[in-house]
Amino acid sequence: MRDIRLLTEPFIPGSLIGPFSNANPGLGGICTFVGEVRGEGGVEALELTHYEPLTQPGMHQLADAAFARFHLMGLLMVHRIGTLYPGEPIVCVSAAAKHRRAAIEAVDFCMDHLKSAAWFWKREKRSGRWHWIEPRTEDHADLARWE
Amino acid sequence: MTVRILFLGPLGDLAGTPEIEAQTPLDWAGLLALVSDALTDELQSERINVACAGKVLANKTDLLARDGDEVALLPPVSGG
């Protein structure tokens, strides 16, 4: 079972997990990661932009890669776009599998790719001014772990 | 006959606009001729990817956009 979504409005990750679990009968474990906007450093808002023709197809290709690599039963990948505020969830990845390691590793794999290999651009507002966020070298190192 | 050229993320700030229109056919040299020197330098760096008609080009200098195509200039990403 695969559920890939781009959302333009705030969402409650917990409300996604119950239905996701129910959609994968017979599972042995679920691992879920939720990323939220940090308010540190005076961040007032975050804006996520994407490129429609590439972003969602790219997320489906990432899901294909995760299913090919790990013994998964289901994968949920939800990413926000638009303007977000501190404390709001940006991303939720949940994997269901017969055994825990596949679920845990699939979530790690998907998150590393969403951070630095998916078609999103992020800028944050501090003291009323917008600043683009550059990808960090740690993000690329994290991604390289899967090569 | 035109193509749309989109400047994604921080490239929009450098270009001063999120998009422009250009005449077809449009190749890579033709695209670079439409933008400022500073933006030309940035677009030529290997950090920048180019998509045409919904596909990321393996080699952006192979760009050949035809009538109705959309060309997207894609800077380094930062999601999650």
Task: Report on the architecture of this protein.
The complex is a heterodimer of chains A (147) and B (80). Chain A has helices at residues 13-22, 52-69, 100-116, 137-144, and strands at 2-7, 29-36, 43-50, 72-80, 82-84, 89-97, 120-126, 129-132. Chain A is of the alpha+beta class and 147 residues long. In chain A, a hairpin with a 2-residue loop joins strand 7 and strand 8. Chain B has 80 residues and is α+β, with helices and mostly antiparallel strands. Chain B has a single domain (2-74), classed as Ubiquitin-like (UB roll), CATH 3.10.20.30. Chain B contains three helices and seven strands; from the N terminus they run βαββααββββ.
Low-confidence stretches of chain B: none
**What structural category characterises the helix and strand content of chain A?**
alpha+beta
Shape of chain A: globular
Q: Mind telling me the CATH class of chain B?
A: Alpha Beta
- β-strand amount of chain A: 35-45%
Q: Biggest β-sheet of chain B: count, sense, barrel?
A: 5 strands, mixed
CATH class bucket of chain A: Alpha Beta
Tally of domains of chain B: 1
Oligomer state equals heterodimer
Taking strands numbered 1, 2, ... along the chain, how are they ordered across the largest sheet of chain A? 1-4-6-2
- Whole-number count of domains of chain A: 1
Number of strands of chain B: 7
SSE string of chain B: EHEEHHEEEE
Q: What is the terminal-to-terminal distance of chain B? A: 38 Å
Percent of residues in helices of chain A comes to 25-40%
N-to-C span of chain A:
25 Å
* Structure class of chain B: alpha+beta
